[in-house]
Design a protein that fits this description.
The chain is mainly alpha-helical and 415 residues long. It is built from 17 helices and five strands. The chain has two domains: 2-49, no CATH class; 90-392 and 400-413, no CATH class. The protein is 73% helix and 5% strand. A hairpin with a 5-residue loop joins strand 1 (2-3) and strand 2 (9-13).
Length: 415
């Protein structure tokens, strides 16, 4: 055993085989197989039909990803970057950009820390440093691979259980609440950006997007987004959303499915109760989550300011500069949300920047330079995430926390 420089983790080398065997005991009992890819658990049924569906799903994800990459490459080449515009980005600003881009991970982890191990008398507060570690690693998966949205969240839940003996029934409600909070905070962020840039969007809509009335389309999307999340929030408040889902599965004729549903009844009931209790009984914590997530979006405006400053696009007035950076970042995040099926929204989000930059009369080569810098920054953090996953693949990282439950007690008290 040794303690790292953070003074938080204890690292002990453990073989991949022993981890896999330990993690798969419950799967051996249930007749399923579990494969591990850098710590990400993927449960697969052994029959041919689910395997075929899985292959088709992965093929669709891969085709979306490759299509997005192809569109990104076409946009950059056709923009004239390198031929019409040879730009230089200051090394000092590049380092400043990387430093500021750590803030979204910090604020996300602060929001997650509120509910990471559940709330209540028996919940323990998980330290911030490992949550930042997991956030960077999980986002690397989410933004870097096809279908990463599912795998990134699975990775976080698996590692919380492995490192802190935190039961999935306690940690999953926190992850769900984080996603709902992220959606509501993003909707508020986009609404603020649209309000700040409303006059310009209304005046230049036809020039930038090819038709008038873009502001009303954005507003309609925000209303639809909030309505969808509102339904989810009400279901969680009332309880039993997951029980309703598996009750539908119970209608399927397959005996194996019915047996699986029967085995999951108690776990699902506990998960529903924890989600409902989290939303009903902790309004202060919910407000704290929203505060930290709004800080996350505001920090991304800071990133945008640095990129625009490096490309010498900012107005001379600091207030005008902040306004421009806010509008572009907020509306750009909306287009990324629309293309959520493609990792990092690549291709679709990049195309939206050409329209957004036309709002301010900026040329296509300048837009191409902007998306190149922005994507290089994202590529750095995706690579950092996979480095962290690689490290945790070969090292079992455990918190030296006296309040952690022993494995025997965890198994005895697990639902």
């Amino acid at each position: 055993m040794r303690r790292d420089s953070l003074g938080i983790f204890q690292l002990s080398r453990e073989s991949a085989e022993s981890r896999s065997a330990k993690s798969c005991r419950s799967c051996a009992e249930s007749g399923t197989t579990r494969n591990f890819c850098y710590g990400v658990a993927v449960v697969e049924n052994t029959s041919a039909s689910p395997l075929l569906r899985s292959m088709l799903r992965h093929a669709l994800n891969a085709s979306l990803y490759l299509g997005g990459l192809a569109l990104f490459w076409h946009l950059v080449r056709s923009s004239g970057v390198g031929s019409e515009l040879n730009f230089e980005f200051s090394p000092v600003l590049a380092l400043l950009l990387l430093a500021v881009s750590t803030l979204p991970s910090y604020f996300d982890a602060k929001a997650w820390q509120v509910t990471a191990a559940g709330l209540g008398a028996g919940a323990k507060k998980i330290p911030l440093a490992p949550l930042i570690w997991l956030r960077i690693a999980g986002e690397g998966v989410t933004n870097g691979v096809p279908g990463g949205l599912v795998f990134g969240e699975t990775y976080k839940a698996v590692k919380l259980n492995e490192w802190f003996a935190a039961r999935p029934s306690d940690t999953t409600p926190g992850l769900i609440l984080m996603k709902l909070g992220l959606g509501y905070s993003q909707a508020l962020f986009i609404l603020m950006g649209m309000a700040l840039g409303y006059s310009r969007i209304a005046a230049e809509s036809e020039v930038a997007f090819g038709f008038a009335g873009v502001q009303w389309i954005v507003l309609a999307l925000l209303v639809a987004m909030c309505a969808f999340m509102g339904i989810a929030l009400v279901l969680f408040y009332l309880g039993r959303p997951f029980a309703r889902v598996i009750s539908v599965l119970n209608l399927l004729p397959q005996k194996s499915v019915k047996e699986w549903v029967e085995r999951q009844q108690l776990k699902v009931k506990t998960l529903d109760e924890n989600c409902s209790a989290l939303i009903k009984g902790h309004p202060r914590e919910l407000l704290m989550i929203m505060f930290w997530l709004m800080m996350r979006w505001f920090s991304m405006v800071g990133e945008n300011l640095i990129i625009l400053a490096g490309l010498q696009l900012l107005p001379s007035s600091p207030l005008d500069a902040l306004l421009v950076a806010f509008v572009i970042e907020s509306l750009g995040s909306m287009f990324r949300l629309i293309f959520f099926l493609v990792p990092s929204g690549i291709g679709g989000q990049d195309a939206s920047y050409f329209a957004l930059f036309q709002l301010y009369g900026w040329s296509a080569p300048i837009t191409g330079a902007y998306i190149v810098v922005k994507r290089l920054k994202e590529l750095f953090w995706i690579a950092a995430g996979f480095v962290l996953i690689f490290v945790t693949r070969f090292f079992s990282v455990q918190l030296s926390d006296a309040t952690a439950l022993p494995e025997e007690e965890l198994e005895r008290t697990s639902p």
